[in-house]
Specification:
- This protein is an alpha+beta fold.
- It folds into two domains: 166 residues, Beta Barrel (Elongation Factor Tu (Ef-tu), domain 3); 163 residues, Helix Hairpins (Orthogonal Bundle).
- Helices cover 55% and strands 20% of the residues.
- The chain contains five helices and 13 strands.
- The strands form two sheets. Strands 1, 2, 4, 7, 9, 10, 11, 12 and 13 form a nine-stranded antiparallel β-sheet that branches. A four-stranded antiparallel β-sheet has the order 6-5-3-8.
- Helix 3 packs antiparallel against helix 4.
- It is rod-shaped and about 210 Å long.
Length: 422
């Protein structure tokens, strides 16, 4: 039932539809031929464009290599203090452009000035000690030689004194013998005269003379023995003096060693002078380090230093971005490096400014970026999937004057195109 109604509706619609005129039917073949011509022209044009595009792509891919994984690189200089102390003044602001040698900040220098004064005094003392030790070297040489000559002379005198006292001892011993002999004769004469005087054979005067002669003899013996003892003591003293002179001579013979010792002391004093001078130089360097200056031209970033802040050695105070020495680091795929060599020209397009710069390939990295990452990839399990790696390539600007306005900043994205074929 429904199908019948639908068929009737279609038949009625067909009858009501307008019929084409006879002249319109006769023009249809001409309209179809014109549309076919335009379609053919379009198809040919598209094919030609595809061919030209393919040729251009082939030519570009054969003569050029490009990448969008590239950025501007530069030196980020970490500014730190080389001495510990309190910041006295800060002369720069965040993102300020400074030139090399500009005073950025200053550490309180008073402690370091006192250290310089102390080291200057220590150097003066060391120099005075060295001068005294240096002068003592020739003085010691002269004194030791004089002592050697004097000791030799004293020893010779002592030897002569021993010989003289020995002869005197021998003379004293002879006098003792003579006195004893004379005393013995006087005593014998006295014994003979005693019985004679009792019998009045001799006079009393003769007897008294014999007694006196006996007394003189005994006294002469005592004197002679005393002289002998004195001569023996003189000999002993002379021999002791000889021993002492020989000891003094042996000490005097050490003159070369004494001179060497004095020279060593002078050398030690000279070394002390050098050490004091080095300490003074270090103190002056530390005083100079209180002035923190910019090592290169650049822009100050990440400033964290403030007045009255206590800083330690090596503490990072700010970062200086150098704009005079920038380059491009382009991460090319390993498949793009077959014909790439240092020295090839590069056209660099900077996205931020829409400007192009001329450059040159200067270095090709020694390892892929993945190998230089913090966690290099490992293939311990053996589940290896080949991934195209990228190699960092350094590109330097051909003409530094192109960036005289310092528009290139580290981190900006660029698109380098390297001509690998001429």
């Amino acid at each position: 039932m429904v199908d019948q109604q639908a068929q009737q509706g279609r038949s009625i619609a067909a009858e009501d539809a307008p019929q084409p005129l006879p002249d319109q039917r006769t023009e249809l073949p001409e309209s179809d031929s014109g549309g076919k011509g335009r379609r053919s022209f379009i198809v040919i044009g598209v094919l030609a464009a595809l061919v030209v595009g393919a040729l251009l792509f082939w030519w570009h891919s054969s003569f050029y290599e490009d990448t969008d994984d590239a950025q501007v690189d530069g030196h980020l200089v970490e500014i730190s203090s080389r001495v510990a102390g309190q910041i006295l003044r800060v002369n720069i602001e965040q993102n300020q452009y400074v030139r090399a040698g500009t005073l950025l900040a200053e550490v309180d220098p008073r402690d370091f000035e006192v250290a310089v004064q102390q080291d200057e005094a220590a150097l003066a003392s060391a120099e005075a000690s060295y001068e005294a030790a240096r002068i003592d070297v020739p003085v010691t040489h002269i004194n030791t030689n004089s002592n050697l000559d004097s000791a030799s002379s004293v020893l010779r005198t002592s030897d002569a004194t021993v010989q003289e006292t020995t002869r005197q001892l021998e003379a004293a011993q002879a006098q003792v013998a003579e006195a004893e002999a004379t005393n013995q004769k006087a005593q014998q004469d006295l014994k003979r005269y005693t019985p004679l005087v009792e019998k009045d054979i001799i006079s009393k005067q003769q007897y008294d003379a014999a007694v006196a002669a006996a007394d003189v003899g005994r006294a002469s013996v005592l004197v002679a023995k005393a002289n002998e003892i004195a001569a023996e003591d003189a000999v002993r003293v002379a021999r002791d003096r000889v021993a002492q002179s020989r000891a003094e001579l042996r000490f005097a013979e050490t003159a070369p060693e004494q001179v060497k010792i004095q020279k060593a002391k002078a050398d030690q004093a000279a070394a002390a002078v050098q050490q004091a001078r080095a300490q003074l130089e270090q103190a002056r360097l530390n005083l100079g380090y209180t002035k923190i200056v910019a090592p290169v031209n650049g822009i100050v970033t990440q400033k964290s230093v403030e007045i009255a802040q206590n800083v330690s050695v090596g503490q990072n105070l700010m970062t200086l971005v150098s704009l005079d020495d920038v380059w491009i680091t382009a991460n090319f795929k390993e498949t793009q490096l077959r014909l790439m060599r240092p020295g090839q020209p590069v056209k660099i397009h900077v996205d931020a400014y829409g400007r192009d710069y001329d450059g040159t390939v200067t270095q090709i990295g020694g390892a892929t970026g993945s190998m230089l990452s913090l966690f290099p990839p490992e293939n311990a399990t053996g589940n290896y999937v080949k991934v195209v790696q990228r190699i960092p390539v350094r590109i330097d600007l051909t003409n530094r004057n192109e960036d005289s306005d310092h528009l290139l900043r580290p981190g900006l994205s660029v698109e380098p195109v390297v001509r690998v074929k001429q």
